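Why does residue order matter? Because the sequence determines the fold. Keep that principle in mind as you read this record.
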Amino acid sequence: MEERSLLETLKQDWLSLPLLASEHGADVDMFIIYIHALMLALFVGWFAYFCLAVWKFSAKRNPKADHVGVRSHASTWLEVAVAVVEAILLLGIAIPMWAKQADKFPDEKESEVVRITAEQFTWNSRYSGPDKTFGKQNARLASQANPLAYDLDDPAGKDDVTPPVKDIRVPVNKNVIVHLTSKDVIHSFKVNTLRVCQDAIPGMSITLHFKANHPGRYLITCAQLCGNGHSSMNGWITVESQVNFDAWLVANKSKTGGAPVSFE
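Structure:
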């Protein structure tokens, strides 16, 4: 049986964090651990103070009320210390981690790019095909047969791949760039295993990226209440080898349907 590190034991047995399957997720997990450590310290400290106050300032020990109250500045310094720790977590860890993900995007030419469109209550995806260029879309072309307004006459879209809904796949150990939007209301694309969660907003194309490093099939959920069918708005993202991914794209080339709306 493989031995687990103390950190892995803490994450799995104490915090019940799901399997980690992305590179940036390690930073997210460490931040979660720091937050829990702070909350544990506050809980233990304040509970100890509560017990001390109940014992020390009971009516039996202090039959006469003291109207002056606390004379020490220890509580003030404790509050300052907590504020400093919170500032370190925010300014020293959270913001730099966010900036790293938001600013340092991988090169699209060396990444797998996918457009994902949320709608009540499913997930649509589209891949650009061998030419790495997505076909145009025009809202005026939206119809029942083409709900996501894809320009079927655009030569650049002839090799685009539209898989079945709720089936999204990416190659392992390769940067993935997602252009995310919504067809109707606000949704939220969440994959716990990849430590990814991003709102999908109508009228906006929001870009996110990740690199999955653990093959598997992982659940996609909507983290934003989006209507009566919200609980059924799930899907699957499959992380697989480049060979299997390429074969899957070829198998889905003949699939027809709409594509995620681009607001470029």
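Confidence is low (pLDDT under 50) at residues 255-264.
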